[in-house]
Fold these 2 entries.
Entry 1:
Amino acid sequence: MRIEIRPAFDEAVMAAEPAVRKAAAKTLVLLQSLDLSDLWKHPGLNFEKLHGMIEPGTGQQFYSLRVTGSARAVTCLLSGPTLVLVSLHVQHDKAYRKR
């Protein structure tokens, strides 16, 4: 699977504590090894649709995936398939707030 990283995701990772940065790097390596069907089935990533949340600029559906026990990445899917890492939220409840 192809991975695209948006600046907001990268900035949040760089500002996070070392444990979150390490987990984000590990998650990125894992994501690169998966295909789309593996992503949906992977038990540790908890990849799920964020109902009612779309990216304003493109209209793409937002999804969430687990980076750590408390950190979540907000993502969207493009054809190809390409997984776009849009943002990182260290407190997962904030990831589910409407933008």
Entry 2:
Amino acid sequence: MHDEALLVARLFLGVPFVIWGAMKLRGGEAKLVPVLAGLGLPDAKLLACLVGFCELVGGIGIALGYPVRTCGVLLGLWCLVTGYAAHKNDINQLLAHVAMTGGFFVLAIAGAGTLSLFGGAPTGLFAYLS
């Protein structure tokens, strides 16, 4: 039951990031560029594509369960930074980002479980990434 619960948690946390990342890479970055430019960030178009790529790769890593600890910590930090930078004036969005952060950090601590890529225990070179 524990491994099934970890799989469900990974899918609930990872799949939205896969969708958001794919949407940004398929033209959705046009909506993000003005927001990033408004924050005073340089080269907003490139940064928007980078955001989409990071969300896509991180979401895939979480959903597949490898490297779940690394992706969990990075996406948790990502949610904190984006929550504060982009949603500090909207308490509901900020709290949603804080909640996702908690989920990612718990997943990073618990691990992927056996229902994941490499069964939760990669070997060789892949072991260094998790």
